[in-house]
Every structure is written in C-alpha cells, then in structure tokens.
Design goal:
globular; 193 residues; three-stranded mixed beta sheet; single chain; 6 strands; alpha/beta
C-alpha cells in the first residue's frame, strides 16, 4: 500500500518540481526583462536555497541563538545574516554556526544589538511597519521585493538581501523611508556579483 501511495504522489511531485525549476529560470531577469549582469544558474540557486535552509535549521536548533529573529539570504554560497541579537556573543556565534554549514563560502554578519526592552505594542507597530514596507515594495515596479528581507525593531528597519545595483538599493531605502512609522533604515543590501 505504501509503495502505491508513493507512486501516486510521485505522479504529482515530478511535474510540480519541474514547473518550479522552470519558474526559477525566470528569476535571473532584471526588472526591465533583460538578463541580470550577475546571473546564476538554476543549480546555484537551488544550492543557495539548500544552504539557506540548512543555516536556518542550524540556528533554530542552537541553544545560544534559537529565539532570535535572524533573516538569512544566500547568493553563490555567500550567506548574509541580518536582524537583532541580545548580545555580542549571539552575533559571533550565529556567524560561526552559519560558516560551519557545508557549501558556505563566506558569511556577512549584519546582525545588530537590540537596544532596550521591546513592548508588545512595539512588536505590533513593528509588524505593521514591516508589512507596509513589503507591500510598498511589491507595488513598486522598480523593486523585486522578494530579494529584500525586512526586519523592524522599535521603528528601526533593516533591509538585507541581494539587489541588482546600487540604484536599486538606494530606491529600496527610499521606499522603506516612505512608510509611516519608520524611524531609521539600516542598509544591509548587497549588490549581486
């Protein structure tokens, strides 16, 4: 029975996986439809996704850093960590955990120390700000918001991820600043190489 169930599920999984891979092939396009100057292959993008998942899993299961809100982006084996930490030991340990993952070539640690206590009201306000920024980026024709991670703490916004150009990074900062409640924006965006 289990073999039959497995065979039936494979009938759906293979076409779904194929469609997903074809969809990823379009991810190398710049906003104007031309190929990105820093393109990667589908294989590299899949490898990066696997690395990101392994880093997330390792951080979530690590007793020193498991409750932190860390955003993880990977491009060509380079891992970008951003978010907020309680102390410097968590920041340093997060980088060490990420670097220990197979396939990681470099870790760019942009974690920032938290300042002061955060109230429930702050957390709700920060969630609204983060959602507002993500919505603004989705609606903006110059942005590929899926490539930009947003973390907010007490109105301080961190943008991280990989963008096509310095111009796109500057535009992302302007989009974030335009959202109500944003006190400041930390730019942790990196231009794809």
């Amino acid at each position: 029975m289990s073999y039959l169930l497995h065979a039936k599920s494979m009938k759906y999984i293979v076409p779904l996986l194929s469609a997903s891979l074809l969809a990823l092939a379009g991810c190398n396009k710049a906003p104007d439809g031309t190929a990105s100057n820093a393109s990667t292959t589908i294989g590299v993008e899949i490898d990066d996704s696997v690395i990101t998942t392994k880093v997330k899993t390792a951080l979530m299961s690590d007793d020193i850093v498991k409750g932190m809100d860390v955003k993880i982006e990977t491009r060509k084996g380079e891992v970008l960590l951003s978010g907020f930490a309680d102390n410097q030991a968590q920041i340093d340990h997060s980088a060490a955990v990420a670097m220990a993952i197979e396939g990681v070539k470099k870790v760019d640690n942009k974690l920032t120390l938290k300042e002061g206590k955060q109230t429930v009201g702050n957390k709700i306000d920060d969630s609204v700000i983060t959602a507002g920024i993500k919505t603004a980026m989705l609606q903006d024709t110059q942005m590929k918001s899926m490539d930009v991670a947003v973390v907010t703490r007490k109105g301080e916004v961190q943008l991280s991820g990989f963008v096509d150009s310095e111009l796109q990074a500057a535009h992302a900062i302007e989009v974030a600043k335009s959202v109500s409640g944003v006190q400041s924006v930390i730019n942790n965006l990196k231009v794809k190489n």
